[in-house]
Amino acid sequence: MKLAGNLVWLIFGGFLIAIEYLLASILLIITIIGIPFGLQTLKLAMLSLWPFGSKVADNGSSGGCLSVFMNIFWILIGGIWISLTHLLFGILLCITIIGIPFGMQHFKMAGLALTPFGKSVS
What we know:
Layout: H1 2-30, H2 35-49, E1 56-58, H3 65-93, H4 100-114, E2 119-121
C-alpha cells in the first residue's frame, strides 16, 4: 500500500516538489553560508520523494542552542512560508476522503519545513 501511495504521490506532484527542493538545495550549498540550509532542503527533497512510510524523528540534539537558533533563523528567512504552503495543500487535500492520506503527508512535510534542524528522516 505504501508503494502505491508513493507512486501516486510521485505522479501527481511529488517529483516536482523534490526537484524544486533539490534545486534550492544546490543553490544554497554553492554558498558557504547556505550549506546548513541546503542540507535541510535535502531532507525535504528526500521526504517529498517517498513520504509514505517515512518518519520524521527528533535527534538527540533537537533542543540544543544551535538547533534552536538555526530553526529560528530558518523560520525567519522563509521556513514559515514553506510550512504554510504544505499546510494549505494538506487542508485542500483533506477535503475529500481520497485525498486524506496525501494531505497527511503534506502535514508531515509542514512540520519538517517549519523546524528542520535537529530532525532526521527515516
